[in-house]
Design brief:
The complex is a heterodimer. In chain A, 32% of the residues lie in helices and 8% in strands. Chain A has four helices and four strands, in the order H-H-H-E-E-H-E-E. In chain B, 47% of the residues lie in helices and 11% in strands. Chain B has a single domain (5-160), classed as Alpha-Beta Complex (50s Ribosomal Protein L17, Chain: A). Classes of the chains: A mainly alpha, B mainly alpha. Chain A binds chain B through residues 103-104, 110, 112-114, 116, 119, 122, 125-126, 129-130, 141-150, 167, 174, 176-178, and chain B through 38-39, 41, 82-85, 87-88, 91-92, 96, 108-111, 123, 130-136, 138.
């Protein structure tokens, strides 16, 4: 190993020569004994990114700063307290006191609402009447320009139904359909 | 004197909000009015039926002016999307409601819708329609106290006369 020591200071040069001589002979306990020194011509790379030391140090303080404090219960709520909250009258379902019996059919109905059974009856009859009207119209967008009257089996138009369009329904007049 | 109009406060606002925009709300109500004039009895969600009632009655008020009236014809043209109903409005509904001063529709609540939403539904109908009646007017029974007293009074008056 040829080492060229080109130091301008003579003292430094002498020191370096002595250290190198000691290394060569193996008197330096820090290096492997008897083996060739590890130093040789090697590539010296200036790369702070290869040994990132600073990032680990920088992370620890930012963890403590970025934490968000949130509310959490301190104690378990006992079952007694829970029961008081869950069964408070404001949370219970209100009982309805406006339910009555329909005088026509006897089903239950709310006082301000039409009876469901009676309304279903009327709706079905209305649907059948509308089917007859549609058959008479013969097509879409042909609304008649005269009033309509519905007559059941065995009924004749009176003088009140003079200029009206007559819709025939092939059944007996229901008791609840009074003119 | 309106000092400021806060967007979040709606004190005194009478018109409900429907649909995607004010124009969409008018289109929705217009469809309902057209359906009412065509079928004379329709089922709709309670709020829409209530909102539509005012527009339908004002349309009939316009129709009562007669079809020669320019404003009445323009109103009917806007509000009825199916144009054969304009004839029905002026020739059938206007004469039917001529003797009445107002309130041409009847609004009743029906049981909640059967679907998942259980929406509050109402049925709105034009009075005097040829369809079967929704509610039969019930007279009080003769056995009530007031009716018995009135019956007694009538008998006494007859005996005296």
């Amino acid at each position: 190993v040829l080492v060229l020591i080109r130091s301008p200071l003579p003292r430094l040069r002498a020191l370096l020569q002595r250290c190198w001589g000691q290394l060569e002979r193996g008197f330096w306990p820090g290096v492997f004994g008897g083996q060739s020194p590890p130093w040789g011509p090697a590539l010296a790379v200036q790369s702070p990114a290869l040994v990132p030391q600073g990032i680990n140090d920088a992370e620890a303080p930012s963890l403590l700063e970025s934490v968000v404090w949130m509310a959490a219960p301190k104690q378990r709520r006992t079952i007694e307290v829970n029961r008081c909250r869950r069964r408070n009258p404001s949370k219970l379902i209100e009982i309805k006191r406006n339910i009555d019996v329909c005088p026509e059919c006897g089903n239950l109905k709310q006082k301000h609402v039409l009876c469901g059974y009676c309304y279903a009856k009327v709706k079905e009859e209305t649907r059948l009447i509308r089917m007859e009207i549609y058959k008479k119209e013969g097509g879409p967008l042909k609304a008649p320009t005269v009033e309509t009257v519905v007559l059941y089996e065995g009924e004749k138009p009176t003088e009140k139904d003079e200029g009206k369009q007559i819709i025939e329904r092939a059944r007996k007049r229901p008791s609840w359909f009074v003119q | 004197m309106r000092l400021s109009v806060a967007a979040a406060i709606s004190h005194g606002r009478v018109y409900r909000r429907f649909g995607l925009s004010p124009r969409s709300r008018l289109d929705l109500l217009r469809n309902l009015v057209t359906a009412l004039v065509r079928h004379e009895r329709i089922e709709a969600p309670g709020a829409r039926a209530d909102e539509m009632r005012g527009y339908a009655e004002r349309l009939i008020d316009y129709a009562k002016r007669g079809d020669k009236d320019e404003r009445a014809m323009r109103m009917a043209d806007f509000w009825l999307t199916e144009k054969d109903l304009i004839h029905k409005l002026f020739k059938v509904l206007a004469p039917r409601f001529q003797p009445h001063p107002g309130s041409y529709t009847r609004l009743l609540q029906i049981p909640n819708r059967d679907g998942l939403d259980r929406a509050k539904m109402a049925v709105i109908e034009l009075k005097g329609n040829p369809l079967p009646p929704l509610v039969r007017p019930r007279r009080d029974s003769d056995k009530t106290l007031l009716n018995q007293l009135l019956k007694g009074y009538r008998q006494d008056a007859q005996r005296a006369a």
